[in-house]
Design brief:
By secondary structure, this protein is of the alpha/beta class. It has 12 helices and 12 strands. It folds into 2 domains: 4-40 and 91-181 and 349-362, Glycogen Phosphorylase B (Rossmann fold); 184-335, Rossmann fold (3-Layer(aba) Sandwich), CATH 3.40.50.2000. The N and C termini lie close together (10 Å).
Length: 364
């Protein structure tokens, strides 16, 4: 078995946020295929600090003295760190998820050492509103070509959204689509919620319609999208809006209305109870990249979804999602009878191709 190494900027956790879940999915696929890999720990290879040579190495890489001493110094130090790791371990194959910030430099180092590697970006960072390149200080979307120059080093790229696969292909980057799908343990938990929703009779007309807004509110596109959404529907008196997720606590003082309940970060048991008792989930996001892990999870749990066009990207083909384009259409849909329980989301066949690709290339 060759020495396969992997690096993600997120901990593998099926109960965590979207980044944790995507990493968990990838790890689950690799391990189920019998592929043994080692998590790369670059911290043990950080070079000694306060060495002026790091600055000159970074300056040689960036070619831009206006980047400032601190930035060029950091670039040089990260390059030394990655190079030391590669020299020590000489991976036969590398699986690279951490395609962000200074970790982008890893692509060039792997390429220079002729280490074959596959990239699995969680999203195209340069297309996230407000993002900024740590190398050129350009803001979104003006550093797209800069980010793509690193991804071009990969032997293949697997994207979480269809749109990003198409975008990379137009830039002559070999890319395939690998949608998010929850690992078995999480899937079984969601299917259990589906069964309990049937028992609970979520379409009970004796209570106000329970709408669930679920997400990570430290994520700017999610926060901005939900702020816009709540302001659009907070006047409706026939609904109760349940806002749930890490960082949602910050909305409590903004929305004191009785029909808006800000739950904040909840336990797994509390989340499951809310998923069982809600009528529908509302998903609204501002333009950004990536794809929302919560959409296939909600559908597996049997929760019908109302989503705007941005949030629904890559999922237009899934039954159970009703897409709205403006506020009037959203309100009309809320006032309509709740859609029936959506069908199960099938296991994506793209997972099989991903595994076949890794097995074929990592074992050469």
């Amino acid at each position: 078995m060759p020495g396969i190494y992997k690096h993600s900027h997120f901990k593998s956790d099926i109960w965590g946020h979207g980044g944790n879940k995507r990493t968990a999915q990838i790890n689950h696929l690799l391990l189920n295929a019998g592929l043994t890999f080692t998590e790369a720990d670059f911290s043990a290879y950080a070079p000694a600090a306060k060495n002026i040579l790091h600055y000159f190495k970074g300056l040689s890489f960036s070619g831009n003295i206006s980047n400032g001493f601190k930035n060029n110094y950091a670039i040089g130090r990260y390059l030394k760190q990655f190079e030391a790791f590669i020299k020590q371990h000489r991976p036969d194959y590398f699986i690279w998820e951490s395609t962000n910030a200074f970790n982008l430099l890893l692509a060039g180092v792997l390429h220079n050492f002729q280490i074959p590697f596959v990239a699995l970006p969680h999203n195209i960072e340069s297309l996230v509103q407000g993002s900024e390149s740590i190398f050129s200080q350009k803001t979104s979307p003006h550093w797209l070509t800069e980010e793509l120059s690193y991804l071009k080093h990969a032997n293949h790229v697997f994207t979480i959204s269809r749109e990003e696969q198409w975008l990379l292909a137009t830039h002559h980057i070999e890319a395939s689509y690998l949608p998010y799908y929850p690992p078995a343990e999480l899937k079984n938990s969601l299917l259990n919620i589906r069964d309990k929703r049937i028992e609970y009779k979520t379409n009970d007309q004796q209570r106000k319609k329970q709408l669930l807004l679920l997400g990570t509110f430290y994520n700017a596109p999610t926060y901005n999208g939900y702020m816009r959404l709540i302001n659009q529907i907070k006047h409706l008196n026939n609904i109760e809006i349940n806002v749930v997720g890490s960082g949602s606590e910050q909305l409590r003082k903004i929305f004191p209305q009785e029909n808006i309940k800000i739950w904040g970060t909840v336990s797994t048991a509390q989340l499951h109870e809310l998923l069982i008792t809600c009528h529908q989930a509302l998903v609204h996001q501002e333009p950004t990249s990536g794809a929302l892990t919560r959409i296939p999870e909600l559908l597996l749990a049997g929760v019908p979804i109302l989503a705007n066009t941005v949030a629904a990207r890559s999922y237009y083909d899934l039954n159970g999602i009703t897409i709205y384009h403006d506020t009037d259409q959203l309100i009309d849909l809320i006032n309509m009878e709740t859609k029936p329980m959506p069908p199960l989301v099938p296991q994506p066949i793209e997972e099989e191709y991903f595994i076949k690709y890794i097995v074929a290339n990592a074992r050469q």
